[in-house]
Each structure stands twice: as C-alpha cells, then as structure tokens.
Write a structure and sequence with these properties.
Rossmann fold, alpha/beta, binds NADP nicotinamide-adenine-dinucleotide phosphate, Quinone Oxidoreductase, Chain A, domain 1
C-alpha cells in the first residue's frame, strides 16, 4: 500500500515521501481501517519538523486524525465498529496512508449526515474548541473571550460556539479583511493587529477592565500583548505556538494583577479523562457538527502522490480552510 513516510525531521516538502509499505495486520483489540481522508493540521507539520510535544520513532508517518471504514479486527469493540465509517484517532502510527491499524476504542463511529470531509476533521479542532471554552474556561454567558489566530479553523469554531452558548468573542487577527470577515461570521468584535493596537481596543470594549478569559495560539509579541490585555484575575490558556517565539511577560503584571497563564494540549487532556467523559465529548461533537457549529471549511483535497503540493497549500499564509489528503472513496454499507 501507499504511505507518506519521513526518514528524518525537517521541512515537510524536503522530508516527506510517498512509499510502498506492507499492509498492517490488526492484533487483539485492534481494527484495520481503510482510510478515506485525513487533514493536514498544524500539529502534523510540527511533528514533521521535529517540534511536536511527543515525537514518534523514525521512520514515521504523520496524520493524527482522519476518517475511514473499519474492514476487520478482533475483540468485542472491534466487532461493534466492523463495517462502520469512523473517525480515526491516531497518535501513534499516523493516518497518511491507505490502511491503518489502531486500538478499536480509537475508532469512533461518526454521524451519517456528516460528509467525509467533515468526518475527517471530527476530533482535533472540534474537541479543542469545545474543551477550552466549555470545560476549562467555562466562559459564562455574556462574558468576553479574547482569542488570537481567530481566523483559523479552530478560531471560527470558537466564534460559532460563542454565538451558540451566548459568550462574546473578541477576535484578534493580522489582516483587516479577515477581521471584517469574522464579524460577518458572527464574531462580536474583531481587531486587526496590522493597523490597530490591541490594548486600546480591549480597554474600550471592557470599560478599562481588561478581559478575564483569553486563548492564544500564536505566542511571541501577539501573545505577550494578550497577557497585558488581561484584567485583574484574568486567565490565559496557551494552546498553540504559531509565531514560534517566546512570550515576554513582566512578572509584576502577573503578581499585582493576579493573572494566570496555563498551557493546554489535547492529547494530555484526553489521557486524563475517563471513558464516559470521552463518550460525552464524542456525542457533543457529533451534535454540534450536525448543527453546523464545529464544522471546518475545506480548501482542497489531494491524493497521497501529491503530498508536496498539499503541504505547500497547507503552509500558504491567508489560506482559507483545511487541506485534506484523500486516500479512497467512502462506500459505507447502509445500516
Ligand atoms: N493544544 C492543542 O491541543 C491544539 C489542538 C488543536 C489545534 N491547536 C492549535 O490551534 C491552532 C489553530 O489550528 P487550526 O487547525 O485551526 O489552524 P489553521 O486552520 O491551519 O489556521 C492557521 C491560522 O493561523 C494564523 N497564523 C499562522 N501563523 C500566524 C502568526 N505567526 N501570527 C498570527 N496568526 C498566524 C493564520 O492566519 P492567516 O490567515 O493570517 O495566515 C491562520 O488563520 C494551531 O496553532 C494548532 O496547533 C492546538
């Protein structure tokens, strides 16, 4: 079968190759899945560059999520998902290949109404958006939530969650056109940092108090500005490092303002959860995807053989929507 493989960490276009590899065979408690599609997420590219929180051994195949059809497996759980279209949660062997083997509990049946494109992006961003806003920060109705990289796929989900659950979003992006677009999407306010200072805008919107809830995926100068924009007792969750640069924080601001900065990493959060919390999460995601809230814009799909064009497109600044790798067509049997 075909798989995307890297033998060393580095720039994705330089190190990713399409290769023929043996088809994997499931062991006890595992399923073999025929992959349909898998997105190129920022975390996949971080792993390829050798900068992810937990690196697999080399040679490695990227692809933390995706959608496929369970073809075979052994054990009770495997029998329950046999023949079903599932979200493929794969933090080990990578999904950018034609067939994968994963533990049966990581094959999550997806609602029939969802297209393959939406099902391919079922977990990483929807779970992060939902857990950050509803489980960790628990943003109250009417409160402001400030978010950076608000035009990202995940940022757009947070805007729709704000509309759905009644919190206000202050959306920070680089470009004016994107700020306007996010207001049309339903963001309560938007700041384009290329032509507007963030601090002044936050002060104007919050009557000088600052915000109490913030999430940052950028770091560097922008993340540091967010720390300054926090109000007394404010809480910032750092969940991405898009700028690749450190935060610069005056410790006095934290001390006097009683502010908190914390990190969030979905894979660590998942490890700490009980099975019923995960079942609740999968159900919530399915429902909120059907309602159009946790959906992803899709930019373009590529065959595995076109991996270099696909990563070029994924790394394009200002790109609208996710880039998918397409391995096969869905032909789920009728239930
Ligand atoms: N901690 C976790 O467990 C977890 C889980 C899921 C996702 N994430 C993180 O969430 C973030 C968003 O993911 P996604 O899949 O939604 O991303 P995406 O759809 O690929 O969008 C990336 C966005 O980041 C913006 N961006 C890139 N570099 C930037 C910079 N230096 N300064 C400001 N903005 C920048 C881009 O803005 P332009 O349009 O201006 O180019 C684009 O809007 C990523 O950092 C990802 O790693 C973390």
């Amino acid at each position: 079968m075909k798989a995307i493989v890297c033998d060393r960490w580095g720039e994705p276009e330089e190190v990713l190759q399409v290769r023929e590899v043996p088809e994997p065979v499931p062991g006890r408690g595992e399923v073999r899945v025929r992959m349909i599609a898998s997105p190129i997420n920022p975390s996949d590219l971080l792993m390829v560059r050798g900068q992810y929180g937990r690196q697999p051994p080399l040679p490695a195949t990227p692809g933390f999520e995706g959608v496929g059809i369970v073809e075979s497996g052994s054990g009770l759980l495997a029998r329950r998902v046999q023949g079903r279209r599932v979200a493929v949660l794969n933090s080990g062997s990578g999904n950018w290949k034609e067939y994968v083997v994963i533990p049966a509990r990581q094959a999550v049946p997806v609602p029939k109404e969802l297209s393959d494109e939406q099902a391919a992006t079922f977990f990483v961003n929807p779970a992060t958006a939902l857990v950050l806003t509803r489980c960790i920060l628990q943003v109250p109705t009417g409160a402001w939530l400030l978010q950076t990289a608000a035009g990202s796929t995940l940022g757009r989900m947070i805007i729709r969650l704000g509309q759905h659950f009644g919190f206000r979003t202050l959306n920070v992006v680089r470009r004016r056109e994107q700020a306007e677009e996010l207001l049309r999407l339903g963001g309560t306010a938007a700041v384009a940092t290329n032509d507007e200072p963030l601090g002044e805008r936050v002060a104007a919107l919050t009557g000088g108090e600052g915000v109490y809830y913030a999430v940052d995926a950028v770091g560097g100068a922008m993340g540091s500005e967010v720390v300054r924009a926090l109000g007394r007792g404010g809480r910032l969750i750092v969940y991405g490092t898009l700028a690749g640069e450190p935060l610069s924080v005056d410790p006095r601001t934290l001390m006097v303002g009683q502010k908190r900065i914390e990190g969030f990493w979905l894979s660590e959060w998942v490890r700490a959860q009980k099975p019923w919390t995960m079942l609740w999460l999968f159900r919530q995601i399915g429902k909120l995807m059907r309602d159009g809230i946790l959906v992803s814009d899709i930019s373009k799909s590529y065959a595995l053989a076109d991996i270099h064009a696909a990563v070029r497109q994924a790394l394009q600044p200002g790109r609208q929507g996710k880039v998918l790798l397409r391995m096969s067509q869905s032909n789920e049997p009728e239930a």
